[in-house]
Amino acid sequence: MSASTTPFVVSPGAATRDAFGIALRDLGHSEPRIVVVDGDVANSTRTEWFGQVFPDRFFNVGIAESNMVGVAAGLAASGKIPVVSSFAAFLLCNAYDQLRMSVAFPHLNVKVVGTHAGISIGEDGPSQMAIEDFALACSLPGFTVIVPSDEAHTHAAVRAMIAHEGPVYLRLGRPKAPRIHEAGSSLEIGKAYQLRDGSDLTIVACGLMTAAALEAHDALAAKGIHARVLDFPTIRPLDVDALVRASRDTGHILVAEEHLAHGGLGSVVAMAVGSHHPCKLGYVNLGNRFAESGTPEALMETYGLTAPHVVEAAVKLVAK
Amino acid sequence: MVTRASAPHASDGGPDLELLSSTARRLREDIIAMTTRAASGHPSSSMSAIDIMVALYKGGILNLNPSHPSAPDRDRFILSKGHAAPALYAVLAEHGVISHESLDTLRVIGSPLEGHPNMRRLAGVEASTGSLGQGLSIGLGHAFAGRLDGHGYRTYVMCGDGEMQEGQVWEAIMAAAHFNADNLTLIVDHNGAQQSNLLPRVIDYRPLAAKLRAFEWHVEEIDGHDMPAILRAFDSVRAVKGRPQAIVAHTVKGKGVSFVEADWAYHGKPLTASEQVRAFAELRGEPAPH
């Protein structure tokens, strides 16, 4: 919880999908109810590491996301803790009715892990990029939605997700994620983490955008603008108290996310702030468009998701 | 260990066929009465399926203790064609899992007997269905779990024949065969009619049994209203090792009431009060009222 004042130095940690693969494999020893349902992408989602240790508890049901989610629902209804994992775009978009009817409606204990989310997946292009997954997951009643920002928090998120009773969506990315949280950090579902304190505005971020927010914090400080930075690894349930404090203390909240403008972190923050303690709001996101192929760095730059974009939006917001 | 549900037995030691048939006739009345009372629902889709469900629950096939409908080693029955919920509710009441009086609350706000089955609200409902195509995948998940836990339970899933047009069903069919899920049985209520028209006029995928066999399933093809044939098919599939099994049951939508049988447009349409009187008379073999 302590807000550091030391400059943020980008230090590449593991990709969140890699941290997930290790954490899941490790948890498999202590929690025998965990089973994995894969849609033929285990070498990409890293669930193959679990499958190598626990082959009997690993089911690759082929390139068939609808069936994959249904099988997970049945496993959960019979007492297992199924982790169903694929690219977020295929898992949520292809199997949405199954997530809705077979998992959310009966509120089954299924853990839905979408990897390769956001535009930072890079060269494979828009067909593989989940940019609407927050909106879809948040539209499943009873779902918890977790978006860890780095390796350490992904380890903690996997532990929290398995310990939590009920359906969870965990969003993970393909590229290496800068280190933000200390190794061994815990993650409490529904809690925001204050990484920096400041009085002029609050930057609320999740996933890769948290690192961009920390870089922006330092650049803004050089301009005399002091930003509080809150990492929101849980989009649902939302830490409304942290938002109310931010609104009261800083009067401006800027929400940064690797997602479409509608239905994601920005939308839920705006609704919460508007209901409880209105203040001036700004947004950094993908807008209302698909991206394209390119390197992750080029895409984040072209589509407005880097630290300088956060700085620019922050300067505009505090001038309001 | 749950004891096998006791079946009604005739003097020769087998299930009492007369009793099963008369039970099915009574449950057809329940189906009609509850949907007519609710003024909505799918009686004809329930009536095509009810003989099979009576055989399953009351013919000594399904190992389900009505006092412990969540016992871990129970057999599972998933009604994937969720619009036949009245048939499921009628047979759950007959089996003693829910009360017979609760049938009067079908589709009434506050009642757990919703228009389509809701497993969160009603004991004995194994899956929340109503969006077609999802039950067989769920059943396969139960089959995997049973195998992992060393339980000998079986999972039965009933799909409609129109529902077999959903791609997800075939995803599950492929996977079940690949995983040799011999503890999984699919029952297709092949009544030949769907919402907008007769099945052959919508998407004619027949013959179904040949397609299932091509996917390496064991298939029994029967008259789904012939009680001895239904019981024989269930006995046969239980003996199959290494492969999932399907029972393709040729049925008649609205079976038992001639004016419903004759008109596929009864899909999703309850009988009126006067039609109910005529239907009950026909089911009971009484003269038609004037």
Properties at a glance:
heterodimer; A: 320 residues; alpha/beta; Rossmann fold; 2 domains; seven-stranded mixed beta sheet; five-stranded mixed beta sheet; 13 helices; 40% helix; globular; B: 290 residues; five-stranded parallel beta sheet; 5 strands; disordered N terminus
Description:
The complex is a heterodimer of chains A (320) and B (290). By secondary structure, chain A is an alpha/beta fold. Chain A has two domains: 14-178, Thiamin diphosphate (ThDP)-binding fold, Pyr/PP domains (Rossmann fold, 3-Layer(aba) Sandwich); 193-318, Rossmann fold (3-Layer(aba) Sandwich), CATH 3.40.50. Chain A has helices at residues 16-30, 42-45, 48-53, 65-77, 88-94, 96-104, 133-138, 151-163, 209-222, 240-250, 265-276, 296-302, 307-318; strands spanning 12-15, 34-38, 58-60, 81-87, 111-115, 144-146, 168-171, 176-178, 193-196, 201-205, 227-231, 234-236, 252-256, 280-284. In chain A, the strands form three sheets. A seven-stranded mixed β-sheet of chain A has the order 3-2-4-5-7-6-12, with helices on both faces. A five-stranded mixed β-sheet of chain A has the order 9-11-10-13-14, with helices on both faces. Chain A has a two-stranded antiparallel ribbon with strand order 1-8. In chain A, helix 1 (16-30) packs parallel to helix 8 (151-163) and helix 9 crosses helix 13 (307-318). Chain A is globular. The two termini of chain A are 30 Å apart. With 290 residues, chain B is an alpha/beta fold. Chain B has one domain: 3-Layer(aba) Sandwich (Rossmann fold). In chain B, strands 1-2-3-5-4 form a five-stranded parallel β-sheet, with helices on both faces. In chain B, helix 9 links the parallel strand 4 and strand 5. In chain B, helix 1 (17-38) crosses helix 3 (50-58). Chain B is globular. Mean pLDDT of chain B is 95; it is low at 1-6. The A-B interface holds A 35, 56-57, 59, 61-62, 64, 66-80, 82, 97-98, 100-102, 105-107 and B 72, 118-120, 126-131, 133-146, 148-149, 155, 167-168, 171-172, 174-175, 178-179.
